[in-house]
Amino acid sequence: MAPTVHLIHNGKKLPLQLQVARTFLSRSWGWLGRRRLAPNEALWIEPCSRVHSFFMGIPIAVVMLDREGQVLSIRDPLNPWHLGPRGVFGGAALELAPGAVARFGIGPGDRLTLKASSR
Questions:
Q1: Which of 1, 53, 91, 94 could lock 63 by a disulfide, CB 3.0 to 4.6 Å apart?
Q2: CATH fold label, 13-107
Q3: What is the pLDDT of residues 37-51, one digit of tens each?
Q4: Global pTM?
């Protein structure tokens, strides 16, 4: 059984259904084709220095992170057909449903990390 990955926000596990995109194909595809996101869905894209919402039919929330998982910038919402905020080379992006950033209390300077669990 593959380990489950959890998102940790300043030391606390967030109740998210998290997908991790690390391959070229999974990073390129992202949320394309989706008609909606559930409030607890999230996509961690790594490495990622910038995202876009070209060809998407839904708005998303975007959190850009440095290499250590520190939140650099947030765009909520990022509407379809727009460029997201810049990140850093080798950093990551977290994409969520609109409004999720505020609901989870994520802000600039916070730390987000991935933690694998066998449960």
A1: 94
A2: Jelly Rolls (2.60.120)
A3: 999 999 999 999 999
A4: 0.93
